[in-house]
Design goal:
Helices cover about 15% and strands about 40% of the residues. It contains three helices and 14 strands.
Amino acid sequence: MVAGIANLKLNLSAFSSSMSSFTASSSSSSSFPSLLPMRTPSSSKPRFFRIYALTSNDIKVGTNLEVDGAPWRVIEFLHVKPGKGAAFVRTKLKNYITGNTVEKTFRAGSSIDLADVYKETKQFTYKDGAQFVFMDLSTYEEFRLGEKEIGDRTKWLKEGMDCNLLLWNGKVIDVDLPITVKLTVVDVDPGLKGDTAQGGTKPATLDTGAVVNVPLFVNVGDEILVDSRTGQYMSRA
């Protein structure tokens, strides 16, 4: 009995010594795998940003280019492959700031600089003299555009309307109105019975001052939908 107890103590002592050696060995070796899997927080995952190299071959209508330190929008382009000589891209560009249009040719495959033009939604709040004031509803910051920058689009612009302002280098350079705008008829000849069957149109003055052709059944006080790109009547709201 005594001998058995002694052998058990010796075995336990040897096992304890073996485990101590194993623990020391594993802690000193960085290559030994962890016994328990460690979960890496998702926030610590590395983020990779892909960089695209753009050339004149990537030009299309609507591309924003920076040429001579100014932002331009491609409104026309044509890839040309002459029988002799190098291929090239012929473009028509519109300057966001001045409104001027120019024709410019790029050698095929040449690198191009994109203009960092981005959109932010703002609400048209009121007109201050010759300036149109837009507001960021989250920060209440105001942005102003003159009649020259907005041009003919002023006739579709109504207070409370959400628009997309185009910004470049922190400066507002243009505005995109909603494609479909809802306006109210304030002056039009009264409709007649049978107008729907007869068809035809008549001019109507809207609450923004715009004049559009509307169906004969449209009357004063009616709200209508107009395509801001073409100025054409779409339907009653």
